[in-house]
Amino acid sequence: MASNLSEARNQDVVRLAGSVDLEHSPDIRRTLLDAVAERVDIFVDLSEVTYIDSSGIACLVEALQIARNHGANLGLFAVSRQAMRVLELARLDMVFSIHDDLASALQAKP
Amino acid sequence: MTAPIPNDSSTVQDPDSPDDVQFLAAYSQFFAVSRDLAATLDTALAGIIQGTNAEAGALFLLDEATGELVCHAAAGPLDLRDARVTPGQGILGRCLRRNAIESLRDGRDDPELLGAIDEKNRLIVRSALCAPLAADGRPFGAIQVVNQRPRGSFNERDSYLLQTMANSAALAVANARLTEELVRQEVTQRELDLAAEIQRNLLPNGDLAGLPVYGVNRPIRQVSGDFFDYFALPDGRIPFALGDVSGKGIHAALLMAKAASLFRCLGKRSDDPAAILAIINREIHETSSRGMFVTMVAGTYDPGSGLLRFANAGHEPPLLRGQDHCYSTFPAEAPPLGILPDMEFWTQEINLEGGEFYIFSDGLMEFHYQEHEELGIGGLIQMIEGLSDLPISERLEALLSELDREGWEVRDDLTVLVIDDSRGARS
Asked: Which residue of A has its CA nearest to B334?
């Protein structure tokens, strides 16, 4: 499940919740790609994510790659324990900038 | 197949007459065995024209994409084949909306009559009948006939005959479509079978028996997004790899083939696992699509010394079972392959010292039991302990059988590779 939470100038926040998996990845992918199409920095809120699989991560990776091609970035914040376990195990913390909350994400400017 | 046109129906006058019944029975029989859609439609229309003594007729099927009716068969002086009509307020539109037969005694103004549809060769229509073709109560086409020749107008018997034949024809069309769909599915299935066979051939084959390495791969779908590989170099060392492509199904299988081929090629040329992963990472990133990536452990094992050198790109930590039955894991030190172009990878070096090194896809960890519980590393260790007396070639198969027997539910491709140093002649 995914929803655009707010839209500020040059920044957009996307919230993902529940199962970020193969079943939901088409919707999640659309939401993320719509967000990065605006060519702004994207911050993805993963606080409500209960499960994430490789299809879900691929959606984040694709959005990150597109954002970088635009000269923008995609960062993650408030990552749930379940999602963080997967991200750390696969060393995706070396790929995404990960922040405790939106305030620190905005401050860090990905 | 030729149409079983029965007796000349001009002699038929009564809907209950034995000739009508015979006529309908013959057509029903033809429709029941016909599997060719075009032939079915032509035969249906020819029979209807003959049965109702109409001057012209046309059979339309709904084009789901555009909502238009497309003429698939035509009989009489007009060649309406491929003509398109948007069903509206005319006879075709009404027939579809009501899913019932429609008749006109004088339809010269109707824009959806055969005579009006053909702009060039107008046919003066004095009377018309239009019956829906429907399956499960949902109309997907219509048959229209115009100008009853002997009488000038259609009667109840013609309506009855048209509707009955349209019903049989609709069934035949639905059957023929189902058959076409089945044929398409069979073709797809054959192609998938072939792809699966080619993919299996990408994995190590039987002539490696005797090596102290063994792997199993079980796709959750027909083709796998996982792979493993190992082969012996002339100096006795054994390059090995196990990879897991994000996602499942054919798109994962295609990337799996690329990653496996790259490893097969590079593993013969370089003894530096980190360098191999760095090259595969760049190659996959260059042609990446949809954010797909590959987690992989790749390395080289030297059976002579027990030395194992490997690198882990975002993959589930391999598990070492020491000779003393102590276990240790080796988490990834770099992210998966294909995400960012310039990533650094690290080679780890350990000596197996008579132990066993297990590499597995996350499908194994995510084995579910009764909906919620995952097998996890603890469950895996328990199973390995129970099977460690078996020869290497049987151990992994036994692991999979045990999981099957215990009622665990697999949700992902499942791949396990074991390197067994216990036969090492060094101790």
From this structure: A91
pLDDT for residue B174 is more than 60 = yes
- One domain for residues B246 and B111: no
pLDDT of B408 reads 64
Residue A8 lies in a domain: yes
A7 pLDDT tier (thresholds 50, 70, 90): very low
Q: What's the token pair of residue B227?
A: 């792979």
Q: Cβ separation of B339 and A62 shorter than 8 Å?
A: no
Give, as one character, the DSSP assignment of residue A101.
S
The pair of three-digit structure tokens given for residue B219, joined into one six-digit string: 């796709």
Both B172 and B219 in one domain: the answer is no
Q: Does the structure's ipTM exceed the value 0.95?
A: no
Closest partner CB to B295 (pick from A22, A55, A90): A90
Same domain, B151 and B233: no
pLDDT of residue B109: 75
Instruction: Give pLDDT tens digits for B299-345.
Output: 999 999 999 999 999 999 999 999 998 999 999 999 999 999 999 99
In a domain, B425, yes or no: no
| B159: containing domain | 9-182
Query: Residue A94 and residue B292: Cβ atoms within 8 Å?
Result: no
| DSSP code of residue B337 | B
User: Out of A22, A59, A90, whose CB is closest to B248?
Assistant: A22
B363 CA: distance to closest CA in chain A (Å): 11
Instruction: Quote the tokens at residue A85.
Output: 């376990």
Determine, for residues B246 and A65 on separate chains, whether the beta-carbon distance falls below 8 Å: no
Q: Are B21 and B12 in contact (CB under 8 A)?
A: no
Confidence category of residue B207, pLDDT binned at 50, 70, 90: low
* Nearest chain B residue (CA) to A60: B291
DSSP alpha helix (H) spans, chain A: 25-37, 54-69, 81-89, 102-108
User: Using the beta-carbon criterion (under 8 Å), do A90 and B248 form an inter-chain contact?
Assistant: no
A109 in a structural domain: no
The predicted pLDDT at position B224 comes to 83
Measured between beta carbons, the chain A residues lying within 8 angstroms of B291 are 57-65
B208 secondary structure, DSSP code: G
| Domain CATH code at residue A88 | 3.30.750.24
